[in-house]
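User: These chains co-purify. Model them together.
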Amino acid sequence: MALRVLLVEDDRELRRTLRDALTVEGYQVETSASLADAQAVLTHSLPHQSLDMVVLDLGLPDGDGAALLHRLRELVSLPILIISARHDDDQKVNLLDAGADDYLVKPFNISELLARMRVALRHRGTLLQPALTEFKAGRLAVNLNKHEVHLDHQSVHLTPTEFKLLARLVRQAGRVVTHRQLLIDVWGIEYVDHTHYLRLYMAQLRAKLEANPTEPVLLLTEPGVGYRLREPD
Amino acid sequence: MIWLGSWLLLWVCDDLLNLGNLALLMVLASALCGMWLSAGASLLTSLLSVLAFNWFFVPPRYTFNVNLHQDALLLLTMLGVSATVSYLMARLRAVAELESQHAQTAEQLHHLGEQFREIKDLQQQGQLLQTVLQNQTQTSVSLLLLPGAGATPDDGPACLLGQPSVEDTKGMWACVHQFANLGLGTGRYENQRSLFLPLRGRARAFGAVAIQPLPEGVWSDAMMRGMQQMCDLLGLNIERAQTLEAAQKAKEDVQHQRLRNTLLTSISHDYRTPLANLMGAASAIESQCARLSQAQIMQLANTVVTEAQHLNRMTSNTLQLARLDLAQAKVHKDWESLHEILGSVLSKMRGRHPQRVIDVDLPDSLPLVFCDAMLLVQLFDNLVENAIKYSPVNTQVLVRAHLEQDQIEIKVLDQGRGIPDTHKSQVFKPFVRLQNEAIPADASDLTLLRRGVGVGLAVCLAIVKVHEAQIQLADNLPTGLIVVIRWPVLAQPKLSSTVWSE
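Assistant: Joint model of the two components:
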């Protein structure tokens, strides 16, 4: 069965372009041009499970899309992808912290959007299944239960903090995890401003896991926002 | 007391001195009296004492008769001198009192002026004036403040302090318009019960006060003058604040004007070219789709994407430049790793220009830098993009960094044609590009050059400036350009020992 996507975007041209592109990829697309419109679609498509994803523009004629994000997050664990013309990192980080699955700044490439959608959808799948405990990408293999990390089938020794940091990224592999989320989950809420801890530990982790730590292929940097572990194979 | 003393003295000296000398003692006593008593009282006492002197001392004694004409003249002179002294003393006292009143008013004004300086809020300044005037007059005082530009109810918000009656409010407006004091005791609108004083600036009134009448009637000139001075102090104060505000606004206007010019130049010079290319490619697909080969359509679509990316890049550069140009630009600084920033810029570049060789030479570890990550990304993105754009496809672009004392020196090197020394400082100005004749180039290079430097380096300079870093251009040998950035290294943040000990 085709996956159903709700596309909330007020610009007619972009809405049509995206709808066509998504339809070509095999998605079943519902579109709405305003908050009220989107709200109506969401209420009438009960149970919510019948929708698989929301692609949400922020600047809508009848309000801020962020309002819908907050309302949706209280109700369902639907993947939500934000698309916005606002190039404000603070807001980007806030929305990610508020539960958006990902964030794309306009203008963006369709292939970029499709890739992000695939990741968000895959995570939704894993939410229903037992939590991901094994991760494999390229040369790296991680087993969270056994606390084991292998690089090219060789065991790698990580300090407890390094392992916690890696494990946190593994749980959301493919998705960006904000600095704030990482600092809170790995070090604790009182370390939320200590971004320099992240820099140092990430450098150590890369030194152990990446062939070229300056240009990582596994532990990717999202400048000003956070880090992203490469999608598993 | 004085009279008692002098009479005693007179009795004692009665037999020793003649009448003339005794009379002089009397004059002295009456002059001394004049120093303390009011003019009328001292005159009265003088008169009484002259009569008494006549009674007791002037022969025939114990009558008011005067024997000799000389004695009569003496008595009259005595009376005259006493009277003059009393009058002069009284006048002196009045002047002294006025003087002290002036001094007090001056002191009050000075104090008020200082308080005005400390309080920035106009309404609070008005309240202060109200309180001071109320304390001084012991009647109720209301204020009309006109912080806006004009002097009519429509020109900006007026602010009323106290509870003026409708009559008083009207009076205050009239006072502002006439730019003069009105009401009781001023000679204008004497039928009004209250006194109205304008808050005068140099050319117009910035409000007025209405002072309820005194129970005992009319204001003294001195008091009125004193109160007017206080009102003027506030008026001038408001005027000064307005002038400052206007100057600030003018400065902002200039800034906005500059911004607008920047944007206009940008649109007219740099946006039309990519827009034309976009339009051409897109309309070709639209109108000739059926007749074009798959490969041709791909080619056109590629042009559309490239030009759109170019436009996007130029837009974000122009916006960033405009944003950083504003004095209060918001910059989010945090501890960042140059490895991470350069790494993410390079991976983007390799994706965008897979055919180019981009080498990196970084030491294993560098101190963290305190900066805005997105700005730093934009900085290196522009520099590397320029290096790629202005050098032949088969040449290397190199990014290199090393620590030098308290600075990190970051260099971006290319092997293009470089920039002649005469133009090195020019290219940091927005929308300046190298003139075509400055660099002989073949046709394909011309199109590249036409794209120009635009805002790229201007943004780089602005970004470097907000981080107190430096940017310079140098020549690469044998050919090419080196962009050198010197980034300050601050004291590194501490790690708590418990975290680091593992």
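The radius of gyration of chain B is 45 Å.
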